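Bench notes, afternoon.
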Amino acid sequence: MAQLDSMAKLAVLADAAKYDASCASSGTNKRHSKDGGLGSTEGMGICHSYAPDGRCISLLKLLLTNHCVFDCLYCVNRVSSNVQRARFTPEEVVDLTIGFYKRNYIEGLFLSSGIIRTPDYTMEQLVRVAQMLREDHGFKGYIHLKTIPDADPVLIEKAGLYADRLSINIELPREASFGALAPQKDARGIRKAMGGLRLKLDESREERAKSKRAPLFAPAGQSTQMIVGADGAPDSEILRTSASLYGGYDLKRVYYSAFSPIPGSPAALPSARPPMMREHRLYQADWLYRFYGFTMDEIVESTSDGMLDLAVDPKLAWALGHRAGFPVDINRAPRETLLRIPGLGVKSVERILRMRRLAALRLSDVARLTRSLKSVRPFIVTLDWNPGMATDSIALAGQVTPKIERPQQLSLFA
């Protein structure tokens, strides 16, 4: 078989990495300035994520290899999948990262891998990449390593000394699903590894509080990824699982990865449609829980048979079911109440709080702070606006609900 050069490997392994949602990614098209203009992008493997200080940064996102000894049914890189395989050496990943960084394509690296030989061997290779970048090249950019839960805890601890963030995939919302979908993985072992990582993070914070000379350990914390739609777990169960993960493991982020037909899938899978809108709604619900003061019970009670409404965002669905709390006086309501108004985000609420210290807000003022005044207007009172009985109107749901066809979540085994 012909040997692949580095760029050919990059094409394979950057594409394979797109299924890993643990780095908030949004790709771009390949562009260059040969025909005029300024700047360029590399089309393969560039994604966007957020640094601990909130900056949006570009990362080189790729797998060390897409060879894997596991046979997880939902994974394109499983051992039984008929896909082109490739493998980088640690030195090749380091050279690519440094080269892309010097050309200003990226500000950091997101590195994951299929399992080769053993979990320990794979983890050693990942750690070696980060160690060489830091120690041999003085690399100060952002590094996110996907860790292997079955690897020796000593290796994961070593990874945290070089990486800004570590992540361990929880994989599936139901432990019972592992036997059918990921028989070689252990749900309890994954949670044990996540718990061990949290203990190390807590220990590191305590040591840093005592002495600033104490070594940093994964200062951006840990995150995880959950496959959505591969088993029968409803949104309510997925969200409650996420809440337990946030609380139990002090996660910075739970990433939801919508299951979709992938190359090499069994013949039964091509009929499934990618539930991207479901994934989007889960992210919206997750944000209500993390940033808007909603409890998970409040979010779940607004579902229908445990599923989020695909035609209405979760905040609007909650508001339509709790009309007694509306309309809200923009000029008097506290921050926690303003955050529950459909159409208003965290930044908009902060601006309202600042503006009303100087003068009472009118409807036109609110219009400048939101993308869609139509969705906000029935739920608010301003100096010159009161919706009256419109908030209680039977027709309100139809007026504020986007007219879209509701996609359906199909079973993995349909």
